[in-house]
């Protein structure tokens, strides 16, 4: 049984790749294909790509390739390459992720899945996993005005679109990158949980504002239950 409405985390915003979805390094593979398509050396850029995991991909390409035209060309090439890898069966649910989502929903919480990918890629992943009807809402940067992480826009869009809670402090967020943590902090989420199944380690997650660091998203339902009981 939940405590008072001021402590119930009834809106849960979850990242996809690295948090609920295992993609086996497909982001780097797709990035390399995109860089080569523009005649660039991906090895010279891979450190930046790793450091900015979780950020909107078009923002990463704007930084790396400069002008808007080349950035959009690279982003299109990236989405196509990633989509082909997804279609080839290269993504899977992280252990316990689906079960955690189903438990959260059974407890009366609204769950939203977010990503830094474009909608076409997000839909391909959801389709490959059979997750199209798993949650109430899925969001990509374009659904929140075009700004992805580390901006708070997708988290706030989840609140506005679902109307699931009456305060940002009743939002719980989980992700695997520093950018996920920053977006949660900037949105005012009450729980900002980092998970160790993706891009960034414990220290980086805490430095970016994580309130909790978990081994995986499978631990999140119990963490929320304890937070509500305290």
TrEMBL record:
<dbReference type="InterPro" id="IPR023214">
    <property type="entry name" value="HAD_sf"/>
</dbReference>
<dbReference type="Pfam" id="PF00702">
    <property type="entry name" value="Hydrolase"/>
</dbReference>
<dbReference type="InterPro" id="IPR050155">
    <property type="entry name" value="HAD-like_hydrolase_sf"/>
</dbReference>
<protein>
    <submittedName>
        <fullName>Phosphonatase-like hydrolase</fullName>
    </submittedName>
</protein>
<dbReference type="InterPro" id="IPR022468">
    <property type="entry name" value="PhnX-like"/>
</dbReference>
<dbReference type="InterPro" id="IPR036412">
    <property type="entry name" value="HAD-like_sf"/>
</dbReference>
